[in-house]
Amino acid sequence: MEKGKGVMGSGRRWAVDFSDNSTAPSSRDIPDPPGFTRASVDQDDSAVSRQKKDAESNWKAQKAWEVAQAPFKNLLMMGFMMWMAGSTVHLFSIGITFSALWQPISALQGVGKVFEPYKDNKVDLLGPKLLFIALNLGGLALGVWKLNTLGLLPTHASDWVSSLPPAQEVEYSGGGIPL
Amino acid sequence: MAIRSFFAPFLFFALCSYSSLTPVLSLYEDQVGLMDWHQQYIGKVKQAVFSTQKTGRRRVIVSTEENVIASLDLRHGEIFWRHLLGSNDVIDGIDIGLGKYVITLSSGGSVLRSWNLPDGQMMWESSLQGPKHSKSLLLVPTNLKIEKDNVIVVFSNGRLHAVSCIDGEVLWNKDFEAESFEALQVIQPPGSDLIYVVGFAASSQFEMYQINARNGELLKHERATFSSGFLREVSLVSSETVVALDSTGSILLTISFQNGEISFQQTPISSLVEDPSGPAVIIPSSVPGIFAIKTNAFTIFIRVIGEGKLEVVEKTNHETTVSNVLPISEGQQAFALVQHAGSEIHLAVKIAHDWDGNLLKESIKMDQQRGLVHKVFINNYIRTDRSHGFRVLIVMEDHSLLLLQQGAIVWSREDGLASVIDVTASELPVERDGVSVAKVEHNLFEWLKGHMLKLKGTLMLASPEDVAAIQSMRLKSSEKSKMTRDHNGFRKLLVVLTRAGKLFALHTGDGRIVWSHFLQSLHKSGTCQSPIGLNLYQWQVPHHHAMDENPSVLVISRCGPSSDAPVVLSFVDTYTGKELNSLSLVHGVVQVIPLPYTDSTEQRLHLLIDSDKHAHLYPTTSEALRIFKREFSNIYWYSVEDHNGIIKGHALKCKCTDEAADEFCFDTRDLWSVVFPSESGKIIATVTRKLNEVVHTQAKVIADQDVMYKYISRNLLFVATVAPKGSGEIGSVTPEESWLVAYLIDTVTGRILHRVTHHGARGPVHAVFSENWIVYHYFNLRAHRYEMSVIEIYDQSRADNKDVWKLVLGKHNLSSPISLFSRPEVITKSQSYFFTHSVKAIAVTSTAKGITSKQLLVGTIGDQVLALDKRFLDPRRSVNPTQAEKEEGIIPLTDSLPIIPQSYVTHALRVEGLRGIITVPAKLESTTLVFAHGVDLFFTQLAPSRTYDSLTEDFSYALLLLTIVALVAAIFVTWRLSERKELQDKWR
Fold first, then answer.
1. Which of A93, A156, A171, B736 could be bridged to B705 by S-S, CB 3.0 to 4.6 A?
2. Are B108 and B93 in contact (CB under 8 A)?
3. What would the pLDDT profile of B561-620 be if each residue is shown by its tens digit?
4. Which keywords label this protein (chain A) (predicted)?
């Protein structure tokens, strides 16, 4: 990359301007040849490009759905990993659980970015986005469920009272065997 | 499944690191002495005999009030060997026989033993029985032989025995059947075959028996009556003359029994000294020709000049002590006199027949903190110029032992520490700025060197010399013996009250004595002949807002054992050992109750109960009174009358109604009483929780996330009673007629919360109470084994606090104050286990916040301290615990508690005569400080769940530093390399 820049920066020897000036007749000095109608070509071109655009947006929508469905595979994979990890608390299961929690969260944070390439005013991204979010939430739920099976969620009374100091006693009594 | 089995080793590894079921707390060999120290003592010396051996190292054999026989090095005072006899095997006399055996008479004269002098091996033991109990006397004549066998003459249990010195065989014995005969002296005139036994019968009769030493034949028996009776003490002035006092203590009687004829010679003391000031007593001595009597004001030395004539040689009002007699040459006998004069003691060595001439006269400066000289023992040595030199062993009032030679103290032993009564811990001063910086800089090179050595050790590069250097460096670490508070709270002062009445402060780092103070109130004085120190309480423990004050302790001492004897409170600063204040109380004290309240200077309020059941508040300040008035209705007290089996509860009523009383005196009223009928039970043990114990949580989480609420109360009393028959000797009772009942009594309301009967069990009971559980140890007569039981108490009324949302929102009453008058619903769980050892003391570890799991510290009969995990005494143990219970750490039930040799806290050492174990929490939560005392002292640090909150002592900081440096260097180098490579790539 840097190398290319360096070469370009050292001096321009020749250049080809590929800019299409055809659509700006006012700038042309040479009149059109007879029998040539610019308009029809323009029309044809626009039809083709519309077709192209349609195809592209179709493709984009398709892609967006694909992307939206991607977490599903992830979900299955995660489920498998979790099954592998077992239900006792140790380094491996904790690692898997936390990655299972972290992946959906980070994916959800980047929902906009994921669907950025497929942004098009003709493509309805709401559906894929919703699916994507739902699947990721599913993944998150799976992670939470795993966390719960590991016993790491404070859902029991014991989790809330285990550090409760003993209650103060109002009365005090001392004494014993006489000295 | 294949993948799963691939992960299995990982899981196993992780599991292992999380749940280690039996934490082994053993030490490595090179860790001994790093955190622990052990000091050996012998106790107050009763009798000392110098070894006359010409060859080998000079030594002195001593017997002490702690029933120790020891051989001490005369040069340094170190112990060569030592034997502790049982507490019921009191030593009556010691002597050296044949120059190589130490002969001891003990157990009221019924056990005679011989020990090899050089190494302390027992040679023989013989049992001497007799018809009746009597005073026991041991005599080892130097030149009395029966058939080439040296003879030991023992008078004990009303019988005279002649015992062979070689094998302990009784050669002959002779009974003294006369009902009231009481032998006072057994005399063997040198060079004769006669033994005289002299004594009194029926208070006014003097009796003399003359016995043939060869066969025990009674040669002569004479008696003479003196109408006004005798005082029971005689002084031997020659081999055929004794001096006694009449029963009024005003007439001296010279009793001569020459040739078997008894003759009295009466001399009134008033004829010898004008103004004798009160009755006299004889100071027992055996100096030929001279004896001493003591009146209230004077000590008088009197010489016997033939035919019963007496002459006063000296009259002094100084405290004087006379030594034993030392034969120095043919016909010459020397003795030593020690007199007090201000801060000095005067030592004089005299020859028995020449009072005015001194062989030696020295003045030695003596620490006032040692009190008076109690005993003197003299020994001589031959100087290079063939003259006699003398060394003197003295026993002081504080039980210390000193050797004086050539006007100086050669060595001293603080043997008062062999009889510790009470212990409390105190913090050290906070480190001030600028105190230790210079020291660190000075030692910077040393520090670096030390760490380099350590690093070498870690990398296994150290040579044997280096290893030795590392070890000695670890042992002598100045860090642990500094006089300032440390971050982990390992350095503290142990304030120790000894039976002699002296306070010592021991540094926990190395066990040295930081200061010692002989309390003025515990000095023997005219007003109080036998003062006893009772207890030690923490009076002021400054922290937070009262940091500038020094902490202080309260010492309670009483004049004599009776409960209404005058009491003195002494307040001692624990930083300096100075007595801040001392109060002589007008009332007696039967109980001292530290209250859980402190005033603004962190002085703890104490309630002292006198024998009329009045409560007196201390400190006597208006602030204390205000705090006390605020809590007035919530303060109760209870008394355990173990002799008649009653436990009584009392409440405070009003101010004292006596006119004489001040405003700090309060009347009390009886509230409740629990009576144990004498035919069914006798109280043998009561235990409460320690006042300063910290409990972290009230909930106990059991398997399946369930919660049990502990019943934690400061006001619970554990009482053990046994059947009256079961309190006698072991073997005196059958299992059917013996039982042990354990009660848990609420001391505010008198409610019995729990009661359990162990049939066929008997005492002695040792118990420990902590948090919500009690562990007690007793003997099971049916199984013929010792048992330990545990009771855990849970609060059932809180058990329904199970709604998570209520707990999350804090809508519960678990932390609101509770009154004991609201009826608690408790359930108890208990379990019993066999235990191999009999026990001398039980304690439990205590930590700063109470989070760390607990260990029981069991003082075994072998004088060692065994750490036993509390998890072994868990009533929820079952034979087959479920998976969940196993995860919780419940150990499968076994019928007996395991004794793991590695879990002896005292490792290879013994705390001879172990009496008590004290635990003090360090500031570091995982660690607790353990102090065990008996005749020996032992201190160590314990981490019941290992040191989870700090790096271990042998962690190599140098290695860590080196690794970091190496990593940084590697990063730098690789960065440079990659830079260069990139540049080269760009130029290509």
1. A156
2. no
3. 887 788 889 999 998 888 888 888 888 889 999 999 988 888 899 999 988 888 999 888
4. Endoplasmic reticulum, Membrane, Transmembrane, Transmembrane helix
User: Does pLDDT of B558 surpass 90?
Assistant: no
The one-character DSSP state at B823 is P
Q: In what order do the strands lie in the sheet with B567-573?
A: B531-540, B552-559, B567-573, B579-584
Contact A92 B10 (CB under 8 A): yes
Residue A179 and residue B558: Cβ atoms within 8 Å? yes
Question: What is the ipTM, given to two decimal places?
Answer: 0.78
Dihedral of CA atoms B107, B108, B112, B118 in degrees, nearest 10, equals 70
Q: How far are the Cα atoms of A150, B1, B442 from residue A95, in angstroms, in the given order?
A: 12, 21, 49
| Residues 6+ positions from B145 with CB-CB distance below 8 Å | B151
- In contact, B867 and B856? CB cutoff 8 Å: yes
* DSSP3 helix / strand / coil % (chain B, rounded to 5): 15, 45, 40
Rounded Cα distance, B652 and B665, in Å: 10
The C-alpha atoms of residue B554 and residue B560 are separated, in whole angstroms, by: 19
Angstrom distance (rounded) from CA B139 to CA B534: 38
B922, B489 Cβ separation under 8 angstroms: yes
pLDDT tens-digit profile of B388-441? 888 899 999 889 999 998 888 999 999 999 999 999 999 888 876 544 444 544
- Output the pTM of the full model: 0.85
User: Do the Cβ atoms of B873 and B767 come closer than 8 Å?
Assistant: no
The order of strands in the sheet holding B665-675 is A172-176, B635-641, B646-655, B665-675, B615-618, B604-609, B591-598
What's the CA gap between B212 and B733, in Å, rounded?
46
- The Cα B958–Cα B981 span in angstroms is 34
Cα gap B855→B866, rounded to integer Å: 9
**Which among B11, B563, B638 has the least Cβ separation from residue A92?**
B11
d(CA B933, CA B925): 24
Would the pLDDT of B458 be above 80?
Answer: no
In degrees to the nearest 10, what's the CA dihedral of B202, B207, B212, B213?
Answer: 70
- Distance, in Å, from the CA atom of B746 to the CA atom of B748, rounded to the nearest integer, reads 6
Q: Which of B597, B601, B602, B600 is nearest to B617 (CA)?
A: B597
β-strand partners of B638? A175, B649
pLDDT at B435: 47
Residue B742 confidence (pLDDT) = 94
Q: Are B639 and A179 in contact (CB under 8 A)?
A: no
Question: Going by C-beta distance under 8 Å and a sequence separation of 6 or more, which residues neighbour residue B547?
Answer: B430
Interface with chain A: mutation pick from B637, B690, B692, highest number of A CBs within 10 Å: B637
Torsion sign over Cα B706, B712, B716, B720:
positive
Residues B616/B664, Cβ–Cβ less than 8 Å:
yes
- The verdict on a CB contact (< 8 Å) between A172 and B816 is no
Is B698–A161 a contact, with Cβ atoms under 8 angstroms apart?
Answer: yes
The helix/strand/coil state of B247 is coil
- How far, in Å, are A129, B250, B351, B374, B726 from residue B297 at the CA level? 109, 14, 26, 17, 51
Q: Which amino acid is at B917?
A: I
**A178 at interface of B, judged by CB pairs closer than 8 A:** yes
Q: What values do phi and psi take at B730, rounded to 5?
A: -65, 130
